[in-house]
Amino acid sequence: MDFEHIVIHKDSDWHSAFPEVIRLRNGDLVSVFRQAPVRPGSGVHGERGAKVTHFHQDANSRIALVRSTDDGRTWAPESRVIVDESNGSQDLNLAMVSQVSSGELIVNNMRLFAYLDDEGKAALAGKRQIMEDRPARPFDSMGFDSLYMMRSGDDGHTWSEPARFGIPTMDFWTHTGQTGVVELPDGTWLLPFHGHGAGDVPAPRSYDGGGAPGQACDRVYVARSNDQGLTWGRPSVALHDPDGVVGFHEPPLLRMSSGRLLIVTRTAGAEGHFYQAYSDDDGWTWQGLGRTLIVGVPSHLLELESGRILCTYGYREPPYGVRACFSDDGGATWDVDNEVVIRDDGMHLDLGYPASIQLLDGRILSAYYFHGEDGVRYIGGSVWSEP
Predict the structure, then answer these.
(1) C-beta of residue 175 within 8 angstroms of C-beta of residue 147
(2) Distance CA 263, CA 245 (A)
(3) Which of 175, 318, 364, 386 lies at a 20 to 30 A Cα distance from 214?
(4) Where are the chain's structural domains?
(5) β-bridge pairing 130-131 and 141-152
(6) Are 354 and 344 in contact (CB under 8 A)?
(7) How many angstroms separate the CA atoms of 183 and 179, rounded?
(8) Which has the closest alpha carbon to 378: 85, 38, 11?
(9) Residue 354 near residue 367 (C-beta atoms within 8 A)
(10) Which of 161-170's residues contact partners 24+ apart within 8 Å by CB, and which partners?
(11) Tell me, what DSSP letter sits at residue 172?
């Protein structure tokens, strides 16, 4: 199988990561991703021989967008637009983009307060999750602020000011999913998240190292809005382990042509295996919770013109890279015996978070973040054909 590896966006001064990619009605492809300053240092997550470092929570991070007008063949650096700019006091993270039936582009992301002193932490205590200091991170304690939304009426060239929004029962900690707004035929907006409440944090012994302590209680929610994102109702719970052993994180939400909703999501406490669930009533109730044979971090779902479901995911065990699996039965089973290795030349586990789209010629473009020997993370892509 042939793979054409491309660079979607690279800037030597900025660490770029966590991309989403969609096709607009006008034919443009846009990719939205997070950027954080590249800083001098000794790498991230124990990376050996690194010349530079970056932080997955950074008070000077931002959300950027780049565009292709030739179906993904080229991505002009000058097309970059800053969707959400930090003022230096907050981390801006995990942005997802979608285009709804009105033509409006919607970006949703999450923000964390930085530089929290004892007074700042006391003000948030019991109301928001607080992440304590990390010795190598120069931003002191950080605490969850809220979810935010930006809108564009001109295909992403200009954007509204960020608007804070919250989900009832999820103010304590809410983390964006791996897809943005999914619009139902009746105009209802759905958004996938993971999170937990103040009383949901389990004992550390229930945690095996798949994320931050306390993540074993994280559950996946799907929230809905009937007024184009102005207000959000009580979310449905899609995946949850009442025993607090398995946590569910960063869910993609796919609405298939059959109308069924599917989630195949990252976990903690499950040896890296994805879990999945589905809904046949527009997300009100969820069935089929179960462990898959796919191992990865995290996932993205796409229904192809052939009718097959593509699951793309990062692979953070040697050899590091990006992989994919197909389902021929609407996600009921996955052909792990014929797993596609898109890349296996990663130098370090800090990579992945892929998103895939089908090009006009039928090939697949999988976007992800990657890096070479300079240590600067960039948004890469691989163009390949469905086997």
Answers:
(1) no
(2) 19
(3) 318
(4) 3-384
(5) antiparallel
(6) no
(7) 12
(8) 11
(9) yes
(10) 162/84, 165/229, 165/232, 166/232, 167/193, 167/195, 167/221, 167/223, 167/232, 167/235, 168/232, 168/233, 168/234, 168/235, 169/197, 169/234, 169/235, 170/195, 170/197, 170/221, 170/223, 170/235
(11) S
33 closest CA partner among 53, 52, 10: 10
Place of tokens 């090939």: 363
Q: Is 150 helix (H, G, I), strand (E, B) or coil?
A: strand
Q: How far apart are CA 9 and CA 143, in angstroms?
A: 30
Q: Count CA atoms closer than 13 A to 3's CA, side-chain side.
A: 17
**Whole-number CA gyration radius for the chain:** 19
> In angstroms, rounded to a whole number, what is the distance separating the alpha carbons of residues 126 and 122?
9
How confident is the prediction along the chain (387 residues), in pLDDT tens digits per residue?
899 999 999 999 999 999 999 999 999 999 999 999 999 888 888 788 888 999 999 999 999 999 999 999 999 999 999 999 999 999 999 999 999 999 999 999 999 999 999 999 999 999 999 987 777 778 989 999 999 999 999 999 999 999 999 887 778 999 999 999 999 999 999 999 999 888 776 544 333 334 444 566 899 999 999 999 999 988 999 999 988 889 999 999 999 999 999 999 999 999 999 999 999 999 999 999 999 999 999 999 999 999 999 999 999 999 999 999 999 999 999 999 999 999 999 999 999 999 999 999 999 999 999 999 999 999 999 999 999
Q: Which class would CATH give 3-384?
A: mainly beta
